[in-house]
Design goal:
Elements (H helix, E strand, L loop, with lengths): L20 E3 L2 H8 L8 E8 L5 H14 L5 E3 L10 E4 L8 E2 L7 H11 L10 E6 L9 E8 L5 H16 L50 E9 L16 H19 L7 E7 L15 E7 L7 H4 L6 H20 L7 H6 L6 H15 L6 E8 L14 E5 L8 E8 L2 E9 L5 H17 L42
Helix pairs in contact: 2-4, 5-7, 5-10
Length: 497
Amino acid sequence: MTTVDRGTAARPGAEGSASRRIPFPTVDEISRHCLQDEDPETVHIEAHLPARPDPGRLRAAFHQALLRHPRILVRQAPSAWWRRRYEWEQTGEPDTDPVAFPPRGADALVRARERALADCPPLSASPPVRLDVVTGADGTGGGCILLLTINHTALDGPACLRVLATAAELYGGRDNSPARAAPPAPRRAKPAPGPAPEPASGRRGRGRPVRVAASTAAPAHGNGMLLAELPVPGRPHRDSGGGAPYTVNDQLLVATRLMVARWNLLRAAPTRPVRITMPVDDRTRGSDMPIGNGTRLVDVGFGADEPLDEAALTAERPDPAAVARLLRRTAARTRTLKSTSGPQLGLGETLLTAPVLPVGVRAAVTRGLRRAAAPWASTTLLSNIGRLPYPLDFGDAGRADAVWFSAPARMPRGLTVTTASTGGRLHVALRWSRALLDDAAGAELAEIFTRALDATSATPAHPTDSTGSIDPTNSTDPTDTTDTTDPTDLRRPKEGT
């Protein structure tokens, strides 16, 4: 895991807290080496509240939440290329006010989303996070939207969500402790029934994975994004042993694999195995949650066991028996991956960040190796936050009734799928690089994903079309979730998102 401070490690105002320096952990350093101005490394979080909070109280609560989690109050310390480390400098207090209230207007939310994808909070100022409070936009009604933009070099979405939960507690005066127990420490699972995971299900699979077929004739910079609200796919009843044969996370992985395969089939792209990168987060969710980039990445491979089923899986309506077989194979793979531990990014990246050579030399080597290894990078990334562990109760402003996350979509992958569950609904964000896809292609991919996810459900709706599931206005110009199936099983967009 990344070496990170816990929220109780340093008290606000403690002597020396403003000058403390922390060497960049592996994930932070690799990200810092590969930054590109034209493709900002932002994570976007969007929480919808039913009422409007008081601006002054909200600003004060968020400020106090930062002080409760001092590891978020960092900026990159000045450095020269010959030094052995990048370092974070803890500031003890914010350098700038991270809370903004954009002008109200019908397109305020669209503009805020565009900014979240294109304008990354700088590493030179503490904190590397921005909170836009959007009111008066189409779809907000009498409520508001809290839109957080995070510099991913400094921290990830779950860590920032922890800080937002603290802000909710300070604002509303109500307990925002995790709604369920923290995930257990990783342990080696018992062998699961069924076929053993294939070698390609490890962090580094064999051979080159397939790429998502490009759709744009004139590649551009930056990311596009589309948000959707879908029903949580149904699962079979738990067996006599107390567990379901697969998780919602497994269903999301299979739906992503089916989406890529179907998209490429429609474009006559070459057929190769699909490999999906999946973050695994073993951190606690309480007030002592480590703040920083705390997930480890594993690769889930598809292809070696599915060639006989490929035609059935890539049909417009995938064959249920073939999907069921794939779900069980995927569950066996993910159980193995989640039960093992290892470096966050793999041994190679760990060695690259060893402070032997000057940081400037390591940066050049890292960028060169990344370019050379690009053909072997995974096909896409699926980040499943799961069911939100916090109520996000802002008192008189209400509880968040929808929360979206999106992860950066840098090439060569060029596509990420990020999911979270709130109130029994699944909130999905597709984000793509404009160097790979245009907005029309992003919308089409989202529709394919919707049908693929439905195909994994134990009670599929078999829609003739899914135009009601995704709101095209969400397209900006821009482990394990255990929610039960929504009994209404409606495919509708959240109003105004």
